[in-house]
Records
---
Amino acid sequence: MMFGFNPAPKPTSRRNKLTTKMRGRIKPEVYQGAMERSGGLCERCGKYGSHEYQTLQCAHLIRRWKIEGETTVNDVAMLCGPSVNTGTCHNWIDYTAEGKAWAEEYRQQLYEKAKE
Ligand SMILES: [Zn+2]
């Protein structure tokens, strides 16, 4: 007796949600947009990086997993870094409650402006 090749059906429910990593990805045009908005200065303290580190980083204003679609220019800000160094704005928004609150508020402002 012959049996046809009968592979197990492939699962049809493909993941259609973006992974946290995909959502958190900062596309070149997003980075460019944030850079133009900031004018090359830290969007919080207005310096080009901190005096010691001279680094400007594209920082997420919101936890990556909270982003619904992809990261847009309104989800990020150019901040002085590096984020691992205390005293920089990037470190401040990533590791302090005060900084996180500022970041969320700043993000709201950016979205408000984008609506106009
Ligand atoms: Zn700064």
Note: Residues 42, 44-45, 47, 79-80, 89 surround zinc ion (CB under 6 Å).
---
Amino acid sequence: MTTSQKTALITGANKGIGKETARGLAALGITVLIGARNPERGEAAAEELRADGADVRFVPLDVTDETSVRAAAEHIDATFGRLDILVNNAAIATGQHIPSETPAATVRQVYETNVFGVIAVTHAMLPLLRRSPAARIVNMSSELGSLTHLADPTGPWTAYSSVLLPYCTSKTALNAITVLYANELRSEGILVNAVSPGYCATDLNRHTGIRTAREGAATAVDLATAGDDGPTGAFLTETGPIPW
Ligand SMILES: NC(=O)c1ccc[n+]([C@@H]2O[C@H](COP(=O)([O-])OP(=O)(O)OC[C@H]3O[C@@H](n4cnc5c(N)ncnc54)[C@H](OP(=O)(O)O)[C@@H]3O)[C@@H](O)[C@H]2O)c1
């Protein structure tokens, strides 16, 4: 491996938008680490993407398990000595409840993956990212995390947001986390952005989405490979900035 060879870690990359982000980065010649909590599913995804001739490897990673997160960081350190790209993609959504009927335990469960999982992985990987000459962090957010959208009671997002308090607010928190990391890391040249993939047909929404997972991955791939003049602290979709 040459020192110019880039390595990317994508959490929750065994299926859906994470796997397509992995495919897109691997097609650019980047060594891609498929983070997945299930070994069979992770290995299967890596094997599928290797069939295209790419360097794609499975790394066991449950973002809610600190031991697993630490082991993944140690493995990457021992194997590559640094990390160039981190895509915090893993997320869950629970069933639908109106806000007043949503128990705290349900919100806590979603935040464990969508919020605390992102912080745990980013915290563990930052020492490795700091060794990269041009590190990039991409957080897979959602337009359902936009406070501007949530604050519009007649807008098109209300049908979803009115029954998804845990998921929507987890993405609002993720957006805030993105901005704070971006502010701290700007002077080090580490670019940190939140992206929305759009409404894609995946297991997360029982394939009701209207875009493909591959289409949804495109903005994440662009930001993961952005030049030094790329944005940071932004919330973007393929058509441009999303209102916070
Ligand atoms: N689909 C959409 O329309 C849409 C819209 C906006 C934003 N997004 C965001 O896009 C991202 C990908 O979603 P998707 O639609 O591709 O969903 P998906 O097909 O359900 O994929 C989610 C991935 O996250 C993994 N995951 C869940 N909990 C994990 C944990 N604790 N540790 C490690 N991995 C874990 C899942 O692994 P398992 O297979 O083991 O469950 C799976 O690989 C998410 O951040 C989602 O919020 C999606």
Note: The first helix runs from residue 16 to 27.
